[in-house]
Protein 1
Amino acid sequence: MKFVWPVLAISLLSLGFIETASAPTYQLPIAGAWAAPPARVTDRPGNIKGDVMVLMYHRFEQSEKYMVRSLANFRSDLKRLRDAGFRPVTVSEYVDGKMDIPPGSSPVVLTFDDSWDTQFKLLRNGEPDPDTAVGVWLDFSKKHPEFPVKGTFFCLANGPFGTAAQGAKKIKMLQSWGSEIGAHTMTHPNLARLSDERVKEEMAKSKLYLESKGAKNVRTFALPYGNLPRNTSLLHGFVWKGKVFKYDAVVLAAGNPAPAPGSSRLNKLRIPRVIASQDTYGINNWLNRLQNKTWKPFVQP
Ligand SMILES: [Zn+2]
C-alpha cells in the first residue's frame, strides 16, 4: 500500500484539496524500497529434487568420541552449515514439504536422540546452560537469527533431558524457539525383539508421556538403534487401549541424505539420517561434497 500515498497526495494536491504547505510533512519512500526482490542466500540454482540432509546427534561433551559430538565441533557444524547457505527446518516441516526458507538456501534438519542432559540443561537462574548443545545453538542464533534453534528432539521418558522437574519447562522453551518434540520410545528397546503388543506400548506410551509434559502434536518417531519392529505394518498406525496411534514420519539411524519432500523415493516411514560426527560418511563428507559439487542438495528456488 506504500505506493498509494504519493499518488493520492499528488491527485489531492492537483485538485486543491490540500494546502501545498502541508505536503512536505509526507516523506516519500526511497525509490524501489518496496520492489526489491529478496536476495538469494547462495548462487546455487533452485533444485526441488535435491536431497535433504537430516543430521543425527546424540550426546555432547568437551571432547569428541564415538557417538559423542564435542561442543566445539557442534559450534563449527552450525557455522559451516549456516555459511554454506543451509537453514534449519523440523522433520515435520520437511515431510510436509512446508519449509519456510529463503530463495537460494538449502534445508537441513538437526535431530537429537535420547534427550541426554548434555543436549539441554538449565542453570540455577533458569537460563539454558551455555555448555550444552542447546546453549551453544542459542548463542549462535543470537548472532545469526537466520539459523534459529529449530530442530527435532526425539525424547525418551527421562524427564526428558534428565530432570523430571524441568522436563516440561525445557519442552516449552524448545517449542517457543520453533523446535519440535518427537518420540523415541519409553525405554529405548530394540523393537526387532519385542512382541507386537510391547512395540505398540512403547510407541503409544512415549507419545502420551511427552504430551503430558506439554509437547504439542507429537507426530514424528525415531527407531531406537534404527531397528524396525518385526511387524513393520505397526509403523502405519495401530490401536492401543482403544485409541488410534499413528506417526507421520519415522527416522532411521545412519545413512545418506534423504530424498526431497515431493520425491517418489521418499518413504516417510523410513527416513535416513546422516551421522553428525567425524565419521567418514558423516556430516563432513556431505559438506565437502557440496563444496566440490559432487552432491546437489535441495535448493529453494
Ligand atoms: Zn536412541
Note: DSSP finds seven helices and twelve strands in the chain.
Protein 2
Amino acid sequence: MQQQDRPFLEVSDVRVWFPIRKGVLNRVVAHVRAVDGVSFTLRQGETLGLVGESGCGKTTLGRAILGLEPVRSGHVLFDGEDFTALPERRRRHLRRRCQMVFQDPQASLNPRLTVLELLTEGLRYHRLLHGETPEQAAGRLLADVGMDTDALYRYPHEFSGGQRQRLSIARALSLKPQLLVCDEPVSALDVSVQAQVINLLLDLRDKYHLSYIFISHDLSVVRIISQQVAVMYLGHMVEMGPVEAVMESPRHPYTQALLSAVPVPGRPAGQRIILKGEMPSPAAPPPGCPFHPRCPHATEACAHGDVPPLRSLPDQPGHLVACRLLN
Ligand SMILES: Nc1ncnc2c1ncn2[C@@H]1O[C@H](COP(=O)(O)OP(=O)(O)O)[C@@H](O)[C@H]1O
Ligand SMILES: [Mg+2]
C-alpha cells in the first residue's frame, strides 16, 4: 500500500534554459527560459493534463522529464530515484519506463521500417522478447491498439492518420512503460478519429495502470482524460489541482481567460475574457509575476519581487494558485 501512496513521479523545481549564442565567438548572450522552476507529483495510474498557450514550455517540460532535454537545475524522480544522478546503465533502464507519443505520428515513425520492425526494434535492443517471436510480440501490441496482424509487413505511410497514431502508441507500449508523455496526440487527427484514440488511451491506462502526462490545447479533451490539470504560462505553473476544481472554478486570472474561450461542462457560460497583448518572450521574461503585463487585476506590487509561488487555497486544499492577489 505504501508503494501506492508515494508519488510515482516527482518533479521538483525543474529549469530548462536554452542558450542564445551570438557573434563570431559564439558566446552565450542570453537564455530562453522555456521551463523555469516547475514542480508537481504524479501517482501511478493517474493523468496530469498540461495546458497553456503555444510556446509556454509544455513540450520542453515533457521532454525534460524523459531525459531528452538537459535539466539546468531541479530534479526528476521516478519511484524516489533521481535518474539524472544514476549511472548510464541504470538510467537506460529507467528511461525505458517512460515513453513519449507525439502529435505527428508521420514524423515519429521511421518510414523505411515495416510495422513489425517498428514495434520490435526496442524489444530487441533491450532484449525483452523473453521467448516470444518478434511476430508474436508485434501481434500482441497490435491487438492492444485495436489493429490486425495483417499490418505487420506494411509501412507507416500505408495507414491513415488515426491508425498511424495507434501504431506509435503500440510502439511506445512495447517497452512496458509506466509513464506516457502524450504531446498533443490527437491534435492532428479528424474530430471523429480523436474520440477513438482518446478512448484507446483510456482503455490502455486502465489495463496497464499507466500514468499519463497529457499535453493538449483542447480543454474538453483534457477534461475527459485527466484527474489533475496544470496550467502553464511562460515556463511557470500558474494553477494546478483536481480537474473539476480548476475547470469549474478557475482562480488564476490566466486560467480564467483561457477557459472563458471554451464552454466547459459544469461551469456556467460567462463573458469571454480577452487578454491584452501577447505572451512575452521567454528570453526576456517580465519581472515579478510573469503574467502581470497582461493581467486585468494586476497591481503595482505584481510587477516587483519574486515570481509568486504556487500556494494551496485555504478553502480548497490541493487546488494551487500562483497569484499574490488571492488569499
Ligand atoms: N531546442 C530549442 N532551442 C531554443 N529554444 C527552444 C528550443 N525548444 C523550444 N524552445 C523555445 O522554448 C519555448 C517553449 O517551447 P515549447 O516547449 O515547444 O512550448 P509549447 O510546447 O508549450 O508550445 C519557446 O519559446 C520555444 O521557442
Ligand atoms: Mg509543444
Note: Residues 81 and 91 are 10 Å apart (CA to CA).
